[in-house]
Amino acid sequence: MSPLQYTPLRTLIWKELRLAFRDKIMSTLAIIIYTLFIASGLLTVLQYQNDQQSRELSNKKFRQQWEAQHNNPHEAAHFGTYLFKPLNLLSAFDPGLNDYSGTTYRVEAHVQHEVDYSNAERNDALMRFGQFTLALIMQMLIPLLLLFISSSALTYEKESGTFKMLMAQGIKPSQLAWGKVWSNYLLVVFLVMPIFVVLFFVVLCSPSGIALLGRFLILLCGYLLFYLLVTLTGVIVSALSGTSRTATLTVLTVWLFSSILFPKIAAGHAADQYPLISRAAFNNNVKQGFLKGINGDAPYHERAEKHYAALLKKYGADSAAQLPVNADGLMLQYNEDYQNKVFDHYYTALANTFNQQQSSLNYAGLADPFMSLKRLSMAMSGTDFYHHQSFFLQAKEYRNNLIRKLNLQLASHPVKPNESYQASPRFFLQLKDFSYQAPTLLETLYLQRLALGSLCAWIALLSMALYFITKPSLQ
């Protein structure tokens, strides 16, 4: 196709954009959208600063408490500490599961905690309606406005009688349809790109900006692909509808089903197909597994007695007082290791169920591109299930290593009967802080390959549908 054949399409696009500006459609949408963005942005910034300040103060406080201790190492293990999942600007853009799954992990001896203390637990409105964020506007409100605009693109031409005039000038139905697609798409791109540009510079200037840049660009591409998909949907509905009223009702139904109903149905189906046991039942399994043993192991008291006897035999001693080590520390660590083994045993089955649920939702995203966008957005923001799981596993490993160091420190200092070893602050000072390493961009992209594939496949499918629908529906 020669460049001259693109002239009608370019003329149509330019004409639609001029009409949008002349009819004040652009200014009206801009006022609505930027008002929402400003309100959401202010709330997001305030929430982010509050959460970040709270984390920094808490980390500093807990660190000072550790460094100031002059205590028995195992008593310090009972005192414990808290670990916080680091925040970044993208997680503020799309909080994802953070508000519901929590971002805080409790470190404590003898107990394996889960990530907890979610914002939704303390906020009934958040539990019911979700947080008013930039991602919510991008995912829900912008597509709704775009559907309303694009759904009347072709019906307006038919109702106003200008369609036949355009055909008489030699414009093909497919050119008219694609002119509507690109003009409406560019209209929304012009509106949202300033927001993304501001986000780009904010992310770039943040402490971890370089590391987040790749994620931000993938996020931007995902939203732009989704808006093109939404525009195609609206124009196809417009081509198939006889009136603008019918088209508006149709796209509203499509939006409600794809954005609200289907995701809830898919989540409910995943939960029913791969049910999870309750937290109380899981904790009871871990407790009973430790007391009674798993995989044919002896109960708690028999295991402890056998290990104690082996310890005496190893050092050729008749009692704990003759040992060159502190038996309490070694016994505590032995029981800790077995409890970790029991926890991992039951958690493996639980993690498999979580993964099955996530896999089900990934495949559901193939049928609903909105779900694919939402999952891609959470993944790039570091607030999806896989990032939550990554934080939990790293926090658990840190907890196990910390408790081991405390118990072994106790074991390395034998004491006389009725005495207790007190570790100096110097020992607690050398204990390292928790450092969370988020999954790499390539790992995250691989996990979200179905989401990206879904968006691209739906665009290709709707493009072909528009080609075949346009001619017969516009005659």
TrEMBL record:
<keyword id="KW-1133">Transmembrane helix</keyword>
<feature type="transmembrane region" description="Helical">
    <location>
        <begin position="216"/>
        <end position="240"/>
    </location>
</feature>
<dbReference type="InterPro" id="IPR021913">
    <property type="entry name" value="DUF3526"/>
</dbReference>
<keyword id="KW-0812">Transmembrane</keyword>
<keyword id="KW-0472">Membrane</keyword>
<feature type="transmembrane region" description="Helical">
    <location>
        <begin position="132"/>
        <end position="156"/>
    </location>
</feature>
<dbReference type="GO" id="GO:0140359">
    <property type="term" value="F:ABC-type transporter activity"/>
</dbReference>
<feature type="transmembrane region" description="Helical">
    <location>
        <begin position="246"/>
        <end position="267"/>
    </location>
</feature>
<feature type="transmembrane region" description="Helical">
    <location>
        <begin position="182"/>
        <end position="204"/>
    </location>
</feature>
<feature type="transmembrane region" description="Helical">
    <location>
        <begin position="25"/>
        <end position="46"/>
    </location>
</feature>
<protein>
    <recommendedName>
        <fullName>ABC-2 type transport system permease protein</fullName>
    </recommendedName>
</protein>
<feature type="transmembrane region" description="Helical">
    <location>
        <begin position="450"/>
        <end position="469"/>
    </location>
</feature>
<dbReference type="Pfam" id="PF12040">
    <property type="entry name" value="DUF3526"/>
</dbReference>
<dbReference type="Pfam" id="PF12679">
    <property type="entry name" value="ABC2_membrane_2"/>
</dbReference>
<dbReference type="GO" id="GO:0005886">
    <property type="term" value="C:plasma membrane"/>
</dbReference>
